[in-house]
Structures are given as structure tokens and as C-alpha cells.
Amino acid sequence: MAESNVVKSTSFNGRTKNRRNRYRLQLGIFLAVVVLVTLILLYMFTSISYVGKVTINKTQLITESKVKQILNLSPKDRIYSLPVSKMEQNLKMQDGVKKVEIHRHFPNKLSVDITEYAIVGVVADGSGFNPLLENGQVLKSINNIDSSTAPVVSDFGRKERQQLVTILNKTNPAIVNAISEINFVPNQEASRRVQLFMNDGLEVIGDLRTLGDKLDYYPGMAKNVPRDQNGNLVKPGIIDLEVGAVFIPYESQKAETRRLEMESEVAARKKREDQKLEQSINELKKQLDAIRTKSKKASS
Hints:
Radius of gyration: 36 Å
Low-confidence stretches: none
Strand content: 15-25%
Order of helices and strands: HEHHEEEEEHHEEEHHEEH
Largest sheet: 6 strands, mixed
Distance between the termini: 135 Å
Mean pLDDT: 86
Shape: elongated
Strand order of the largest sheet: 6-7-8-9-10-11
């Protein structure tokens, strides 16, 4: 009988202890939920969640002030409610922008990572230089690019310029960086002739249709051109990539003939462009005179 009472007492004590443990666990969970909800509410409805520091990576084609203007952030914007996708889309619509990633960082920081199209060349516009991008676009809204940033591209039509961009995109960047100028100088015998001036003093002549396959030969050929102990060319000249791949010193008759051909073609093209411009101006004057005459008749 005594043993039975001891067993019952032990069982009762065990059940009581289990109930206490469950109660403590439930209370702990409840308090944790209350604390968590309180912290979330404090974060959501106090100044902690206002957008704080905004970090924008360094860009060349779009200014930081322009980026901030497009983001259109106000001091009362909360970090968790920002329309990130729309902000990214608005930035992607800007000229020169290739990719945009915006990230939120707890508690209130924002980072904007903008990837721009690479500058493969610059185009003179009379007052400065416009960047020529890897997608073939010329940003006429920007004319303060340093001409040493990339090769100066001249006299290319839209179609030929796009062909050139395709070539530059595929060419070893070290070779592209070694080019100072690229001119389009076609004539009747060579309708896709291009002229490149290199930073090391050499000149390269090639055909736009085959230039991409031959430019990779340039470093090897340039290395074999005689130079003095200071690295200066002993005999400056032309590396001809039009048909084969050969070095022609300037002092040779062949190089002189090539140079005269290109100078003649450039001069002829400039004359044609000047004539076309003059014709356009004259036509515009005629239209203005006709408008003035018509206006005078109407007023009388």
C-alpha cells in the first residue's frame, strides 16, 4: 500500500513538472513573438527605416547627380517600400547604361551599381569629342570626353562605323589601346580602306572587311620594325594589311603613292561635304525668303 502511494505521488509530481515546462516554453515563445513584433513595428514606423546612405559606383557617362535625380529619393522614403525594380528600369533607359543593380542593406542603406557600355572610340563634333560606345551608339549629349580615352574615329558613315565597332569589340584591348586615330579613307580601288595611326608612331592601312582578322598580327609586326636603343623607329612607315601584311618605309615610292592617294581622297571628300553643306544652306535661304515674301503679301 505504501509503495502504491509512492508511485502515485511520483507520477503526479512528474505531470506537474511537465505542465510547468510546457507553460514556461509557451510563455517564452509568446514573449519572443511580442518582442519580435515590437522590434518590427519600431523599425517600420520610426526614423530607423528612413533611407540613409546611398552609395553609387563611379561612372563616366552618367553623373552622380543625374542618378540621384532619377532615383528621386526623399528624406521620408522608407527603405523597405522603395520601388527598386522601377528605379532600375528608369536608370536603364538612360543613354550609355548597360546594366543596373540596386540593393538594400539593413537597416537603411542603398547601393546602386551601374554598368555602362564601354567606350571604344571618340568622335569629334567641332567643340569636343563624343564617346562611341561598344553598341555603336554615339552619345552626342556628351562632348567632354578626353580624346586620349580611346581612338579618334573620323569620316565613317553609320554602316561603316558599326562594322568598325564590331571589329574593336573583338580585338585584343591592348591593341585597341595602342591606336590613336582611325580614319575611313575609301577610293575607287579600295571602297573599305581604313587608316590607323598608332601610339608607337606607325601607320596601318587595312580593309574594313578583313581588318578584324589581321589586327591581331600587329604586335608581332611592330616588334620586328627596326628601332633605336630608345625605342624610336629607325625608319617610320606603314604596315599594309590590305592584301597581305607587309611593312613599307615612308621613304619608299610605294608608301609615298599610298599617302598621296589617301590625302587626295580626304581632300576630295571634304570638298564634296562642303559643297553639300553650302547647297543645304542655299536651299534653306530660299525657303526663308519664300516665307518672308508670302508673309509680306499676306500683311499687305
